Amino acid sequence: MLPFCALALNAQTKAKTTTVKKTTTTVKKATSAVVFKSTLDSASYAFGNTMATSMKNDGLNSLNYDLLIKGLKDAFGNATPLIPKEKSQAAINNLFVSVSKQKHAPAIAEGKSFLEKNKLQTGVQVTASGLQYQVINRGTGIRPKATDTVLVNYRGTLLNGKQFDSSYDRNEPLSLPLNNVIPGWTEGVQLMQTGSKYKFFIPYNLAYGERGAGADIPPYSTLIFEIELLKVNGK
User: Fold this and answer.
1) Does 164 qualify as catalytic in the annotation?
2) Cβ-count burial of 50 within 10 angstroms (0-12 exposed, 13-18 middle, 19+ buried)?
């Protein structure tokens, strides 16, 4: 039998020439079953699960759980909030806007690419806000103000050509106040003289934004409108 020092030396020598593969065994710890001991216990879990399910349906996949728990404890313990009440809703809204932008990134990119190319087309003009327009027919009448009600014919389409609305199809012009429509309309129609027909290319932020409109206009949609200004009715 070799003495201990010889065994150690022999092991070191073999280590230089032999590759030893180690097998790591992962031991899974059994998770204890959750026991609801009271109505408060079951309701507490239900609150958390219901809120999370709702937020997940809105596109949110995770939260900072430590700060979520602190927020709950601070509220129930009447502690001074780390974020003032008037800023809390803004923080929540900003998070959901960020999540929504990630979800609809392809639509945002499509609109941006279209507008970059479209502004190079002959006759297309661009305002300071990013609204693009093209004069089809230039009228000679008065221009409306933002506080005026106007009578218009119009047709609206998505970038893929799908029509979502048309007064022409209904054979019924629309009367509307310019201060109660999407920003692209409020700005664009004021550029027109009565009797004009313009084509507008409206970025999502001047249209229906991150929410879209109903089933026909998805969030972050860049829109195309042909608008014919028939009459200015004043305030």
Assistant:
1) yes
2) exposed
Residue 154 annotated in active site: yes
In this prediction, residues 207-220 reach a mean pLDDT of 94
Reported pTM: 0.72
Residue from 74, 96, 142, 164 carrying the catalytic annotation:
164
Catalytic one among 148, 165, 201, 220? 165
Query: Do residues 161 and 190 touch, judged by C-beta distance below 8 A?
Result: no
Q: 225-234, pLDDT tens digit by residue? A: 999 999 999 6
Among 154, 198, 201, 204, which one carries the catalytic annotation?
154
With cut-offs at 50, 70 and 90, classify the pLDDT of residue 68.
very high
Active site residue 65: no
The yes-or-no answer on residue 225 being catalytic is: yes
Residue ranges per structural domain of the chain? 106-234
Query: Is residue 208 annotated as a catalytic residue, yes or no?
Result: yes
83 is catalytic: no
pLDDT at 235: 64
User: Averaged over 191-208, what is the pLDDT?
Assistant: 98
Q: Residue 21 corresponds to which tokens in the numbers above?
A: 């593969």
The residues, any chain, with a CB within 8 Å of residue 42's CB and separated by 6 or more, are 36
* Pairwise pLDDT comparison (26 vs 41), residue with the higher score: 41
pLDDT at 16 over 60: no
Catalytic residue among 201, 202, 225, 227: 225
Task: Tell which CATH classification among 3.30.43.10, 3.30.70.20, 3.10.129.10, 3.10.50.40 matches the domain 106-234.
Answer: 3.10.50.40
Integer Cα distance of 152 and 168 in angstroms: 10
